[in-house]
Amino acid sequence: MAPAADAFHFLRRPANHPVISGDSTVKGVTKGPEVLSEADRFGMRMRMGLPYRISSKVVEFQPDRLLAWCRDVR
Q1: Among residues 10, 16, 42, 50, which is most buried (max CB within 10 A)?
Q2: pTM of this prediction exceeds 0.85
């Protein structure tokens, strides 16, 4: 089992998100920072049958402890 800080740093990198996609729908990054922080926005290439893109925003952030994002509907 990896230390929590290692897992947090892995998840902060959107380029790693396809690795953790349980259903393989996440295909890659389209825009955003290399490492996520508070209030960052990022985009991902997705595919569920047809390809599409989704934009997300970091809504909760506590270093080495908490990282949450949701769909960016601005």
Answers
A1: 42
A2: yes
